[in-house]
Design the sequence.
């Protein structure tokens, strides 16, 4: 199959530069790609977007004219993400609002970068989920077993928040294809199956977004990179057998009672894995996945439940380990012009507001790297045009 020529040098740091297929040593990236091979496999990235980058800013070509756009990363959000839960419920439903407020107060994001979304159309949700299940969620008629499996109160607001989350992920994926990087300030509900929800996942926003993209661009190759502490079993099941989709998941080994669902590549860690071992597994296996499958888009479910103080993650990563994860993966995608849509994934930290802080850190890293490398891309494109 087509591959990207990743070198599996974990701590050696191979950083691809646009230089006629040559590899130069760089800092801060454990994944390196050969430029020439990448472009032969996927075509020039400009072919996928009406945008080009000059002097670190977007130039949007519309109707033969060039319009200057400020350097920014669009982040998709809805005030409907937060619904009321019982006082003793462990899920941090306020993490979406809190992380957004952190990003605004600290100046990481500007208000105009946050895009309020509505609800995904019902027919899109039904393209992945059983119509009867969707109707039961909408009408609040899930039975007791379904409600217990889902783990959330069955209210009219549940359908609204879930459909809004699907729409935010869908819009983030489309924006990523156009602009290189986009973020859903939620998303990653990877435990939702066709006929039922599970573990807080009502609708599988990733699977719906991919089916929507395939209607828009039928030949699009999408890789789901899931670094949430738990396997993306619902995503695996819904996308199984589709040669245009590659599902990668690194997670704690499932228990015998719940063996999981096979994806394109599943990487199991030991329970309570520490940071160094986890990062070595992640970097080497993701390099192998990208050697196997050349994506036109990566949908990255980041996850905050890998932290050692999470209630359910069963991993022992520190905040520094998670920032290292974010930096290396985002550099691998952004430097190599692979569009990436960043989603939150799960997290249920014992310390109040810390889940939101981890999500905030991921968004801040994506914003920083996107801004840095658009300037690099611009200089490379100008050199290519003058050659």
Sequence:
């Amino acid at each position: 199959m087509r591959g990207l020529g990743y070198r599996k040098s974990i701590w050696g740091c191979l950083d691809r530069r646009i230089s006629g297929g040559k590899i130069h040593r760089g800092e801060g990236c454990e994944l390196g790609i050969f430029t020439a091979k990448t472009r032969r496999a996927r075509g020039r990235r400009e072919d996928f977007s009406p945008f080009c980058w000059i002097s670190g800013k977007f130039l949007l070509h519309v109707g033969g004219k060039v319009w200057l756009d400020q350097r920014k990363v669009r982040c998709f959000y809805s005030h409907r993400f937060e619904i009321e839960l019982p006082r003793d419920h462990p899920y941090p439903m306020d993490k979406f609002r809190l992380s957004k407020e952190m990003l605004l107060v600290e100046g990481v994001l500007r208000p105009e970068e946050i895009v309020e979304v509505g609800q995904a159309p019902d027919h899109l949700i039904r393209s992945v989920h059983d119509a009867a299940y969707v109707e039961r969620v909408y009408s609040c008629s899930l039975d007791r077993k379904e409600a217990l499996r889902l783990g959330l109160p069955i209210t009219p607001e549940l359908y609204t928040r879930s459909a809004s989350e699907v729409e935010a992920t869908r819009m983030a994926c489309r924006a990523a294809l156009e602009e290189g990087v986009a973020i859903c300030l939620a998303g990653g509900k990877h435990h939702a199956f066709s006929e039922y929800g599970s573990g807080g996942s009502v609708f599988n926003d990733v699977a719906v977004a991919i089916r929507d993209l395939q209607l828009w661009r039928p030949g699009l190759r999408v890789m789901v990179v899931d670094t949430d502490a738990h396997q993306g079993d619902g995503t695996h099941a819904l996308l199984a057998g589709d040669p245009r989709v590659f599902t990668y998941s690194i997670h704690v080994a499932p228990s015998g009672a719940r063996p999981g669902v096979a994806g394109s590549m599943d990487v199991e860690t030991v329970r309570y894995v520490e940071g160094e071992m986890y990062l070595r597994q992640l970097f080497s296996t993701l390099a192998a996945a990208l050697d196997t499958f050349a994506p036109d888009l990566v949908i990255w479910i980041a996850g905050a439940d890998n932290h050692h103080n999470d209630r359910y993650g069963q991993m022992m990563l520190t905040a520094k380990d998670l920032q290292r994860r974010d930096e290396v993966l985002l550099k691998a995608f952004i430097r190599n012009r692979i569009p990436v849509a960043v989603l939150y994934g799960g997290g249920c930290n014992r310390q109040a507001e810390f889940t939101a802080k981890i999500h905030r850190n991921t968004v801040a890293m994506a914003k920083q790297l996107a801004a840095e490398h658009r300037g690099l891309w611009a200089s490379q494109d100008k050199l290519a045009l003058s050659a």
